[in-house]
Amino acid sequence: MQNAIQVKGLQKSYRQLYVLKNVDFEVEKGNIFALLGTNGAGKTTIVKILTTLLKKDGGQVTVNGFDVASKPSNVRQSISLTGQFAAVDEVLTGRENLVMIARLRHLSHPREVTDDLLQRFGLSDAADRRASTYSGGMRRRLDIAMSLIGKPQIIFLDEPTTGLDPEGRIEVWKIIKELAGSGTTVFLTTQYLEEAEQLADRIAILHEGEIIVSGTLAELKKLFPPAKVEYVEKQPTLEDIFLKIINKKEDK
Amino acid sequence: METIKMRNYFFMDMGVMLIRSMRHVFRSLDTIITVTIMPIAMMLLFVYVLGGAIKTGTDKYVNYLLPGILLVAIANSAGYVSYRLFLDKQRGIFERFHSMPIARSAPLWGHMLTSLVSNAISLVVIIFVAFLMGFRSSAGMLSWLAIAGILALFTLTLTWIAAIAGLAAKSVDGAGVIAYPIHFLPLISSAFVPTKSMPAGVKAFAEHQPVTPIVETIRALLYNKPVGNQIWVALAWCITIMFCAYLCAMRVYRKRL
Questions:
Q1: B103 CA to chain A: closest CA distance, Å?
Q2: Yes or no, beta carbons of B92 and A53 under 8 Å apart
Q3: Quick check: B3 pLDDT over 80?
Q4: CATH code of the domain containing A225
Q5: What is the pLDDT of residue A111?
Q6: Residue A19: inside a domain
């Protein structure tokens, strides 16, 4: 089966600074792929190259079978990007934001598509309020909803949960799982190991411009010495406590 | 998803962009005050407070003043273009649009079109108020069309200059700075008083900057006077500056985004 994303020998530098030295990875169709790395490791640079926002210096990159350099408009037809900061228009209402994107994707029924997404993302009540009044989690949900319009085959999420509270994070995780369940390929960057562990089918770690390890969670775990059995009293984490208190558990 | 060639959609996409930024204009009280109420207040102030002391050689001061007020209104709107472009750049809106299958320049042209449409609306309102204040013109249809053309050209010129500032700026304040020199151009011109009353140095500046020939051309068109070569000077200024600003803005746009 053809891979959704194929990257070979990708290089990128800003003037003298080599951000990406030699990046190789591939993402299978319908998978959730998590790219892990510290701040400044080059995760966003990779996302920008894959989404045709930035030109690569060297290497082969294909997205949905199209070369990003020679067929950028075919790539743009196949993808959508949710950037690091929720790119919603704050002056417009949630509904207007969605209708705008649906029009730009040239769908024949922008209103129906919008109503459907508002419902699905729990934004129906806030639909006619300006996005500037939304909470961080709502804004991110709207942002992701905007990315789903037109049913792109591949979705890029650049640090989708950075800056969200635990509740918002869990909401976003739920959405990502549903997406992958419906056959969409998800490319995700994150700094949180837990997030990759929760969501990803395959994980790659980017460090100093190269992918130092990649594989499934099970494969990555095998790289390290076998687990030792120790008895440690399990204290609830502050997150557990927080979620318990506000009584909105993960299975909401 | 329908995958018809995207160039067929260029104008449709521009329409979507236009609706979006027109909403920005209409939902910003600040913008409406600066581009419509302020020029009207200025017109009231000059006509009813200062106008009595200004000798222009025309029967009614409002007739003399109106072209300048129109240019002030356009100049006031320029800062908002750079402000909005900067926010689109900073908040990742451009990235979102650029990763979609639409023409890469559509978001930028959307702002240009919005500037033209919103200025047209505010100018019509201002002319209507001037009419209530006693402004009368003997201009025919053709002259009005020529005036509209010159005003549109002036709008585009300032908008492209503002676009450079908005796209290149590193902060909101930086994006807004461009507004100040632009605000001053109509003030140091023949827009409010004839240049012959000014001291030599100021007079030289006022007579050799773009706003004066534009004001004089519009005045001549409004009152059926010979336009002379002022119109060519005005057009040369606008087209030259607009062309340079356009190239520069496009360069920044491609490079930064």
A1: 9
A2: no
A3: no
A4: 3.40.50.300
A5: 93
A6: yes
pLDDT band for position B5 (50/70/90)?
Answer: low
Name the residue among A150, A173, A178 with its Cα closest to residue A160: A173
pLDDT, tens digit (0-9, with 9 covering 90-100), for B149-197: 999 999 999 999 999 999 999 888 888 888 888 888 888 998 888 888 8
ipTM for the assembly: 0.86
CB pairs under 8 A between A and B: 68
A96 contacts B23? CB cut-off 8 A: yes
Cβ(A149)–Cβ(A101) below 8 Å:
yes
**How many independent structural domains does chain A possess?**
1
Chain B contact for A178, CB < 8 A?
no
Strand, coil or helix: A63:
strand
B172 touching A (Cβ < 8 Å): no
Answer yes or no: is pLDDT of A219 > 50: yes
Tokens 């095998």 locate to: A222
Instruction: Give residue B6's pLDDT.
Output: 53
Asked if residue A195 is part of any domain, the answer here is yes
Q: Verify whether the Cβ–Cβ distance A52 to B98 is below 8 Å.
A: yes
Average pLDDT over residues A117-124: 91
The answer to whether residue B109 neighbours chain A at the CB level (below 8 Å) is no
Inspect the interface and report whether the beta carbons of A89 and B93 lie closer than 8 Å.
yes
User: CA A86 to CA B34: how far, in whole Å?
Assistant: 30
Rounded to a whole number, what is the distance in angstroms from the first to the last CA of chain A?
36
Residues 6 or more apart from A127 whose CB is under 8 A from it? A93, A94, A95, A118
Residue A252 lies in a domain: no
Q: Which of A87, A150, A151 sits opposite B92 (nearest CB)?
A: A87
pLDDT, greater one: B239 or A163? B239
Candidates B100, B109, B255: best to mutate against A (most CBs of A within 10 A) is: B100
Q: Is B9 on the interface with A (CB under 8 A)?
A: yes
Distance of CA A48 to the CA centre of its chain: 13
Q: Is the pLDDT of residue B200 over 60?
A: yes
